[in-house]
Amino acid sequence: MSATFTIGELAREFDLTTRAIRFYEDCGLLAPQRSGRNRVYTHRDRTRLKLTLRGKRLGLTLAEVRELVDMYESPRDTMPQLKKFLVVLAAHREQVEQQMADLQATLAEVRSHEREARRLLADGQKRASA
Asked: pTM of the predicted model, to two decimals?
C-alpha cells in the first residue's frame, strides 16, 4: 500500500494553511479520498500540490496551473504538453517583462520627484540662511 498524508501533514510540509489546501480542492487541483470525516491524500495529490505551488511561484493563474497539471498526468505523448507549457510560459514572461518595464518607469519618476524635492529643500534652506 502506498503512503498517504493527512491535510495537516501536507500543510506543514508545504508551509500552507489547511484552508489553502481545501481551496485547492475546491478548484479541482486536489481530490483526496475520505476516511470517515478525514481527508486522505495520496502521492498523486502531494505531487499535484507541489506542481500547483510551483506554478503559483511562476505567477501562473490557478486555471493555467490546473490545465498544465492535468496535462502532466495525461498518459498521452508529452510533446503537446511541452508545447502548451512553452506557450503559457512565454505569455507569462511577456507579462512579467511588461510589469518590470512599468516598474522601471515608475521608479524613474519617483527618483525624479526625489531629486526635485531635494533641490527645492536645498534652495529653501539657502534662502532661510541668507
From this structure: 0.68
Same domain for 78 and 54, yes or no, is: no
Asked if residue 40 belongs to a domain, the reply is: yes
Note the pLDDT tens digit of each residue in 30-83. Answer: 999 999 999 999 999 999 999 999 989 888 889 888 888 887 776 666 787 788
Position 27 in a domain: yes
CB < 8 Å & 24+ apart, contacts of 51-59 = 52/24, 53/14, 53/16, 58/89, 58/92, 59/92, 59/95, 59/96
Whether residue 29 is contained in a domain is answered as yes
10 Å CB burial of residue 71 (0-12, 13-18, 19+) is middle
